[in-house]
């Protein structure tokens, strides 16, 4: 009997405040979509960082005949190359090194042609420096290699390839922060709208609530229909947000984007399914808090 009464009160409340309920659903949908998108973007950045930082190398560029570096007095000699190779294989450094590849000027020129055929036409192979490409066991220990070879005879410069990726990841992190900031604003709007909707519903049914108080109904029993109205509206918004995120990742990320830029590892719909429950949990908590705060004063009257 009590369950039937609670359900009927929920139906009455949703019908009386249909426009406000739809507003709550839409605001919740938008805000949780941005929350989910921000969380997935941060996960994507972490995935890409872990994958690419493991693959990046430290490049030890050797001097060419035209090098202007203070450590260069002409092209690197065979003795210079042998000293670098020996140092990389020595016990102090070998523990940090996973692999070493030597790239000749001709190989560097061939790679340059693949990247920019038009610009490479104005460059000759001997103008491109030879280099040692050093893979690290721990990419964070770049400083050990840099300090060991920077300024050494025959070495023009030591470059960590992560420096090329950092600006890209900085942009992604900024986009994530912007998405989460907008989501925060929308969540505040959702909380205020939920509170207003519940308060309006309580005001419209104040006579019925007063009668129920007189016959001994508990505060919990009085609050429950209003609380569930907000939870239902939020769950509808969370469900819509989850559906949009699933579609966006399935069609946009693992579909179109993965085909256009296959070099990266991307999040999948499995990651979205793992995120969706948290959208529901967060939405329900917000709806519950907003509803209880709005009703606490009303029920004390």
From TrEMBL:
Assembly behavior: Forms a membrane-associated complex with FtsE.
Keywords: Cell cycle, Cell division, Cell membrane, Membrane, Transmembrane, Transmembrane helix
Example GO biological process: cell division
Compartmental location: Cell membrane
Protein name: Cell division protein FtsX
The family this protein is said to belong to: Belongs to the ABC-4 integral membrane protein family. FtsX subfamily.
Membrane topology: Multi-pass membrane protein
Record flagged with keyword Aminoacyl-tRNA synthetase: no
Residue stretches making up the FtsX extracellular domain: 56-158
Main subcellular localisation: membrane
Claim: Membrane is one of the keywords in the record: yes
Membrane-spanning parts: 21-41, 180-203, 224-249, 276-295
NCBIfam families: FtsX_actino
Protein species of origin: Pseudokineococcus marinus
Function, as annotated: Part of the ABC transporter FtsEX involved in cellular division.
Record-annotated ABC3 transporter permease C-terminal domain positions: 182-300
């Amino acid at each position: 009997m009590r369950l039937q009464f609670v359900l009927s009160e929920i139906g009455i409340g949703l019908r009386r405040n249909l426009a406000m309920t739809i507003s709550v659903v839409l605001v919740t949908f938008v805000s949780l979509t941005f929350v989910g998108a921000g969380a997935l973007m941060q996960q994507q950045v972490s995935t890409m960082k872990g994958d690419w930082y493991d693959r990046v190398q430290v490049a030890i560029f050797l001097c060419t005949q035209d090098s202007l570096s203070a450590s260069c007095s002409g092209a690197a000699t065979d003795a210079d190359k042998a000293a670098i190779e020996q140092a990389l294989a020595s016990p102090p450094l070998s523990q940090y090194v996973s692999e070493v590849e030597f790239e000749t000027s001709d190989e560097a020129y061939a790679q340059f042609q693949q990247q920019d055929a038009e610009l490479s036409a104005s460059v000759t192979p001997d103008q491109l420096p030879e280099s040692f490409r050093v893979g690290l066991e721990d990419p964070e220990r770049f400083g050990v290699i840099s300090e060991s070879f920077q300024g050494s005879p025959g070495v023009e410069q030591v470059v960590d390839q992560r420096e090329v990726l950092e600006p890209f990841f900085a942009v992604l992190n900024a986009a994530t922060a912007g998405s989460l900031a907008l989501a925060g604003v929308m969540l505040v709007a959702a909380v205020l709208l939920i509170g207003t909707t519940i308060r309006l519903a309580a005001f419209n049914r104040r006579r019925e609530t007063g009668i129920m108080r007189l016959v001994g109904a508990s505060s919990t029993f009085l609050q429950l229909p209003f609380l569930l109205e907000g939870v239902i509206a939020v769950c509808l918004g969370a469900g819509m947000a989850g559906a949009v995120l699933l579609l966006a990742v399935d069609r946009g990320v693992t579909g179109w984007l993965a085909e256009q830029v296959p070099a990266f590892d991307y999040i999948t719909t499995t990651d979205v399914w793992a995120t969706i429950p948290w959208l529901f949990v967060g939405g329900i908590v917000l709806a519950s808090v907003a509803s209880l705060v709005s009703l606490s004063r009303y029920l004390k009257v």
